[in-house]
Amino acid sequence: MDLANKIKAQREKVGMSQTELAQKLHVTRQTVSRWENNQTIPNLDTLNDISDELDISLDDLLKHDNLKTIGSISKDVKLKKAL
């Protein structure tokens, strides 16, 4: 299962709407929708917050996902180190 489906499945499992998750993460509902439709990928900080809010480990969120997601997160980490 990819990251998008894991976010959606876990959000539904805990009984949270896209709007509720968006409010907790301080993003728009459309942003959550884009994550769940595999249009965008949350940055590392946001993934950590998603993990906390949805009570799922980062390992479970990212395990068995495609290399594009991992590459995007790695790029985000490298940019943070440069700052």
Brief write-up:
This protein has 83 residues and is mainly α. Helix content is 71%, strand content 0%. The longest helix is centred in the last third of the chain and has 16 residues.
Report on the structure:
The chain is an all-alpha fold. 71% of the residues lie in helices and 0% in strands. It has helices at 3-13, 18-25, 29-36, 44-54, 58-62, 67-82. Helix 2 packs across helix 3 (29-36). The termini are far apart. The model has no long low-confidence stretch (mean pLDDT 88).
How do the helices and strands line up, and which of them pair or pack?
Blueprint: H1 3-13, H2 18-25, H3 29-36, H4 44-54, H5 58-62, H6 67-82
Helix pairs in contact: 2-3
Structural class: mainly alpha
Q: What share of the residues does DSSP label as strand, in percent?
A: under 5%
* Overall morphology: globular
By oligomeric state, this entry counts as single chain
The tally of helices reads 6
The end-to-end distance, rounded to whole angstroms, is 33 Å
**SSE order, one letter for each helix or strand:** HHHHHH
- Total beta strands: 0
Would you identify the regions where 5 or more consecutive residues have pLDDT less than 50? none
Average pLDDT number: 88
Radius of gyration: 12 Å
